[in-house]
Design a protein that fits this description.
Two copies of one chain form a homodimer. Chain A is α+β, with helices and mostly antiparallel strands. Chain A is built from three helices and eleven strands; from the N terminus they run βββββββαββββαα. In chain A, the strands form three sheets. In chain A, strands 4, 7, 8, 9 and 10 form a five-stranded mixed sheet that branches. The model of chain A has no long low-confidence stretch (mean pLDDT about 95).
Chain lengths: ~180, ~180
């Protein structure tokens, strides 16, 4: 039976702009295995599957530095220090798109990558969103808004035009919420 | 209209055990925005949704250093340098579970996290898997096998017992494959 490993040593190697890198020395309680492991610590993230009043999904197109390419995603971002995750989701939706909603549902919490990342992504559903303001983008953000039907969103996943794992996981959580 | 940013400078900061960390200085072609961005480079990953001959899903339970906890996931791992992704998926399934299959389907490619990670996760479906060998675990791996029905797998996602975003994304890709 698998058990949690025991931490022998933790070294905080460095801070990136959006993560902290730790080296962990851990040992298995089952035998004498002992090794060094990478751990990337990030703030929690939030994602929002947001439908406007016409039932269209609000998507964000942006340049992403990891893949060095444009992507189509759902709105989301990092939770600020001490911020409530739902307020964070509402803030990210408003900042990135200018839309807001008074009907919010929690779809679930997924792990970014439990193998070496510490954080979760809390996924929300926002219904009947209205355009209530302009975008309030971070200094380094450029975001175009796309409104698409749910069928078109699914087709874009099938065709590989939407590829972000957290976005596709959000769709799965939504499908469970819709058809429990 | 959003455009790709232009790289001004790239600094390879350090190598972790499973990633390389780069700092990128990039500028927007739209205006004079210029900033520094974290990029985490990983090898490509593979994931396998594997069903045994009785139609049960083959899951792996293991201790994960990122979340410092046990997780239930589908088999998968990192593609070796120069390795074909399908062979990698077949190798990971065999090594982690001892199962193999002669019916493989490609479900799709998802991005780990395009915001700051470079890599994809290629997701495969393996049908009618047979137990053909013992596990061949890496020196630091401990893996218990669980066989569950697809309904139980879905329930575990709904209840938050399976939380890995790449695993949940794999389920979404499978549901599209099954009901195109």
């Amino acid at each position: 039976m698998i058990k949690k490993w025991i931490e022998k040593e933790s070294q905080h190697v460095l801070n990136g702009r959006i993560f902290r890198y730790h080296k962990k020395r851990r040992t298995s309680p089952q035998d004498d295995k002992e090794g060094n492991f990478d751990v990337i610590e990030c703030f929690p993230w939030v994602n929002v599957l947001a439908f406007d009043e016409a039932g269209k999904l609000i998507l964000v197109e942006q340049y992403r530095h990891g893949v060095d390419d444009l992507t189509l995603e759902i709105p989301g971002g990092a939770v600020n220090h001490g911020e409530d995750v739902k307020l964070s989701a509402q803030r990210e939706l408003l900042e990135e798109t200018g839309y807001s909603s008074d009907e919010w549902h929690f779809l679930g919490n997924v792990q970014a990558n439990p193998a070496f990342m510490t954080n979760d992504c809390s996924t929300f559903l926002a219904m009947n969103c209205k355009k209530t303001s302009d975008q309030k983008l971070d200094p380094m953000e450029e975001i175009d808004i796309h409104l698409v039907t749910l069928d078109s969103f699914k087709d874009k996943i099938k065709r590989g035009e939407i590829k972000h794992s957290l976005v596709i996981a959000a769709y799965a959580l939504y499908s469970f919420w819709k058809n429990p």
